[in-house]
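Structure ticket #2291
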Amino acid sequence: MMNIGFLTLDIIIIIAIIAVLFFLSFYFGKKFLAKLIILFYPTLLIFLNLPYFKPEGDTATIGTFIGLYIVMFLIVRRNATAKKLYSGFRKFTDGLVLSIMFVVQLLTLYYHILPLESLYRITLPFSNFFTETLPLGALLIIPLVGLFVTNISDE
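Resolution: structure written out below.
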């Protein structure tokens, strides 16, 4: 595994994804990341219970999930709204928390749902944490808690 100082490639990839999502939250607002987090659940439910189609192969499985996710995003894109737009520190913390919660969802998808190990294999410390320490149910609830915390005072 490639290392840059004390950072492994896995940590660099995760930090890069969080940074991109963080900047997207500033560009599109909190509403965008909230939609991405919320849409994960109905997409997962539909994907795991497809009635007449079972994708075979890693590429077909990944493509099916991404396709369903895009369809769900197109359906919901105008219906989900955040009540208030913040500036300053609150905008920063909300964007950071929602970015981290979305990365938790991506890692849950990676370890428990889709066969993504053929694309990239994450090193052992992350594997142990996401497969042995936290069960699937907890990993699915954590992003919802983060979404709830960022929306506590939006009334």
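Closing remark: The longest strand covers residues 3-4.
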